[in-house]
Amino acid sequence: SQKIEQNSEALNIQEGKTATLTCNYTNYSPAYLQWYRQDPGRGPVFLLLIRENEKEKRKERLKVTFDTTLKQSLFHITASQPADSATYLCATSSGGSYIPTFGRGTSLIVHP
Amino acid sequence: GAVVSQHPSRVICKSGTSVKIECRSLDFQATTMFWYRQFPKKSLMLMATSNEGSKATYEQGVEKDKFLINHASLTLSTLTVTSAHPEDSSFYICSARDLRTSDHEQFFGPGTRLTVL
Predict the structure, then answer these.
(1) Given A4, A98, A103, which is nearest B104 (Cβ)?
(2) How far is CA B21 from the centre of its chain?
(3) Quick one: average pLDDT of B79-107?
(4) How many of the other CB atoms lie within 10 Å of CB of A95?
(5) Letter string b/e over residues A25-35, b meaning 16 or more CB atoms within 10 A of that residue's CB
(6) Which pLDDT tens digit goes with each residue over A40-78?
């Protein structure tokens, strides 16, 4: 089964810098890769989805890349703000199964 | 955007009682709903997938008689934790999709914190 690996250590950065979070998957190349934001005590919120035939996707200050050779996705937040502090979850799903597999998430802390 | 609500947001109950959690899709029809539980600093653990009008599909290790799921309409799914025990204390989150239109993203509810004394 698919295994999703995200850095368990919190990422601390200064306001205004670009935050980069990593998601690695171990087995098959997923048809879809998604990123979610989760605040403490709340359900995840969908941010971006990227397909296996897409290299990069952007939405406002967010950018996601998808490298099927490295089996990796990078999630970037440019001009980061303290309000961006949260846990970011990566999830993959195949074309045949619509049920995603979630990583444990990486905590991002943006210091003012 | 698609909105999913959950009720209650927090519940405390005595051991042995049953607790029902509702999950509603407010502005779209959810052909499929998912139920997850999440422990502190852990990933979402899928418990079951429910399709409207049919029986839920449970993940391995999840007791279907313990966690009763009903998906009677395209906007409502319920999870009932029967004869709850302290080890059932957790954060339960539902999510919903419209397989006819969505592009694999899921829309999550805000979660329900269950504490069993």
Answers:
(1) A98
(2) 7
(3) 87
(4) 11
(5) beeeebbbbbb
(6) 989 999 999 998 899 999 999 999 999 989 999 999 999
Of B6, B42, B108, the CB nearest to A45: B108
Alpha carbon B60 to chain centroid, angstroms:
16
Give the minimum alpha-carbon distance from B30 to chain A in angstroms, rounded to a whole number: 14
Distance CA A86, CA B97 (A): 24
Average pLDDT (A35-40) is 94
Q: Give Cα B70 distance to the centre of its chain.
A: 10
DSSP track, A30-80: PSEEEEEEE-TTS--EEEEEEETT-SEEEETTEEEEEETTTTEEEEEESS-
